[in-house]
Amino acid sequence: MMYEQKTKETDRSVVEFIENVESPKKREDAYKLLDIFTETTGYEAKMWGPSIIGFGSYHYKYESGHEGDAPLVGFSPRKAKISLYFATGDTKREELLKDFGKHTTGKACVYINKMADIDVDVLKTLISQSVRFLKETYSIS
Fold first, then answer.
1. Which of 34, 98, 102, 128 qualifies as a FRET site for 65, CA 20 to 30 Å off?
2. CA–CA dist 136, 6 (Å, integer)
3. pTM of the model
4. Alpha carbon of 113 to those of 35, 65, 83, 133, 141: distances in Å?
């Protein structure tokens, strides 16, 4: 049985998605993140699945044979918190997060409540580092 990838890049409008974020504060933060991620990566924002705003993409393949495409980095302004997606398996991430500000971490995500809680310079470094790590790991042009 082929594993069907849930999160695929779509043609949906990123701005339209942000405009539909209920909280005005979160919407404002989403636009700030959109600017920072776009500027830092040099990639155009694309919707991945229904709620992830991703930048760039890479093709991964696990030893299990499972493979797919994923954004290099991204974010999602979810109801409870804002999820930030960085490279998993990058040891430098932990080091950088020490100076990031108020956040919690999941397996693949870093969660923040609002932009005011974090250091934007550290965010830019986290984004650049993730992109660099993935390019080296997956030999992306």
1. 128
2. 25
3. 0.90
4. 18, 36, 9, 26, 34
Structural domain containing residue 128: 11-135
Instruction: Confirm whether 141 is domain-assigned.
Output: no
Host H or E run for residue 46: strand 45-48
At residue 49, the 3 state secondary structure works out as coil
pLDDT tens digit sequence for 15-72: 999 999 999 999 999 999 999 999 999 999 999 999 999 999 998 887 888 888 899 9
User: Alpha-carbon torsion 101, 105, 111, 113, what sign?
Assistant: negative
Residue 18 lies in a domain: yes
Q: At what angle do helices 120-138 and 24-41 cross, to 10 degrees?
A: 50
Question: For residue 81, what is the domain's CATH number?
Answer: 3.90.1150.200
Bridge-partner residues for 104, per DSSP?
111
**DSSP result, 66-128:** -EEEE-SEEEEE-SS-EEEE--TT-THHHHHHTTTBS-EE-SSEEEES-GGGB-HHHHHHHHH
Amino acid letter, 17: F
